[in-house]
Amino acid sequence: MSRILAFAVTASLAFSEPYNTFDGPGHPTCNDVAGVYDPSTAANTSTPCDTMCSDDPSTIIIRTENVNQIANFSLEPSAEDGSVVIEAGVTFFQLADYLHQRNASIGYALVSWNITLAASVAMGAHRSSLRQDSMVASGALEVHIIDGSGNIRVVKRDENDDQWLAASTSLGLLGVIARMKFKIYLDFKVYADQKILAENDVLNGDIYGLIFPYATANFWCQQGFQSTFSVTKTEADTALGLLNAGANSSFFNSLAETTFFSLWSFPNFREKTNNLPLITCLVLKRIREAFDYELEVNGKQMTSTYRSGINIKFGKPYFDLLGQVTYGTADGADWSKGAMMFDFPTFRPTVGDGKRFNEPFYPMLATTLVNEFPCRPHWTKNIRGVFEQSKKNIDPDHLARFKVVKDDFDS
Ligand SMILES: Cc1cc2nc3c(=O)[nH]c(=O)nc-3n(C[C@H](O)[C@H](O)[C@H](O)COP(=O)(O)OP(=O)(O)OC[C@H]3O[C@@H](n4cnc5c(N)ncnc54)[C@H](O)[C@@H]3O)c2cc1C
């Protein structure tokens, strides 16, 4: 997908080698691109480019990192809310800093991490909540998109307008989001808590009742933990060695899990005393079945080998055409209480054939869930094989309406 963009290109770099993700060499985001450009602001010029590689080696990547101005702050002390305008490369951290200095926040739409709000809106990113709007896009008031002809099109929030419903989760297919007008609020404090639940209380409990009362809440399973941390090079090398040893051994995977779990301390520490608490929910019971099968029949224990363990998130219903928590689908599935997101990141060994210890398990689990439940893609986290399978679970009318808007923006 290449398009004419209205970004002023201030520096360009010819690329004949892989363009890596943040993880560095060995983790290419693009194997073959024609160039990487670093625009510094959105303006009128004609440069064919995209924000992510496609299969076309003539694609030119634009890095939005330096397009990061924040302007038009508006929030009266007595007002319920206000707004601010942010450019494509503004990250959550940048915006949080900027707003904090002005006694403001973007409320519950914050996902955190060093990722951009524009890409989060494009990909339908969300945090975990059944009570508050969970989509990052729910905070967007206007999305300014550079269409296929290089024009900036301002799409304003309007639930009755298919342009808005497509722009709300566009996957970048309408064009690059150059800037957004975002809703802001007076700053407020939240308190954090963690509870260890007995497996039985969770398995046979009321999952909606457990999650709904909180502004944000999720479940962490197995010896799961979420840590925001920095490590030294030596620590990182040791961890890498341990994780790579786990490519052929569940012993090393379990050792890594236990070691990381005991090394990182409160408040990043997420204690779990049970092996795998599961919720009274068919999807999760099915996953539990698959886990048990992997051990009993294939003799391979499942462990969580990535930083965050297994994370189960929840999303309040929010209507747009391709969003993860949308509703009103022709399959008749009941989304009225929201959607559940099973997030199981794993470490892919950087040695040998790069295959994980339980390699066949992961695609098998995805196929099982997609075929047995109305599972839709988690756009930010799945891989192409999963998208291809789960496409059948996206409402055909939503897809058709999206395509009309897409063709209008980028023929
Ligand atoms: C540690 C971590 C935790 C995360 N937690 C969550 C979570 O809790 N919930 C969740 O939903 N996601 C989560 N994610 C996923 C994250 O939300 C997405 O990967 C997000 O899209 C990353 O933004 P980025 O700026 O790195 O975008 P990139 O990875 O650079 O781009 C992602 C996609 O967006 C497109 N894109 C980028 N910029 C634009 C633009 N300006 N206009 C149009 N399209 C654009 C790209 O072409 C690409 O397809 C997490 C990611 C990480 C690394």
Please characterize this protein's 3D structure.
- It is globular, with a radius of gyration of 22 Å.
- Helix 6 (233-245) packs antiparallel against helix 7 (250-263).
- It has 411 residues and is an alpha+beta fold.
- The chain has helices at residues 92-101, 117-122, 162-167, 199-203, 207-211, 233-245, 250-263, 282-296, 361-372, 384-390, 396-409; strands at residues 3-14, 19-20, 28-30, 35-49, 60-62, 70-74, 82-87, 104-105, 140-146, 152-156, 176-186, 219-221, 310-315, 339-343.
- The chain starts with a strand and ends with a helix.
- It folds into three domains: 3-62, no CATH class; 70-186, Uridine Diphospho-n-acetylenolpyruvylglucosamine Reductase, domain 3 (2-Layer Sandwich); 199-396, no CATH class.
- It has eleven helices and 14 strands.
- Strands 6, 7, 8, 9, 10 and 11 form a six-stranded antiparallel β-sheet that branches. A three-stranded mixed β-sheet has the order 1-4-5, with no helix packed on it.
- The longest helix has 15 residues, at 282-296.
- A hairpin with a 5-residue loop joins strand 9 (140-146) and strand 10.
- The chain binds flavin-adenine dinucleotide.
Low-confidence stretches: 1-5, 8-15, 223-228, 265-280
Number of helices: 11
- Give the count of structural domains: 3
| Helix and strand pattern | EEEEEEEHEHEEHEHHEHHHEEHHH
Broad structural category = alpha+beta
> How many β strands by DSSP?
14
Q: Rg to the nearest angstrom?
A: 22 Å
Signal peptide: 1-16
Protein name: FAD-binding PCMH-type domain-containing protein
Keywords: Signal
Domain FAD-binding PCMH-type: 7-187
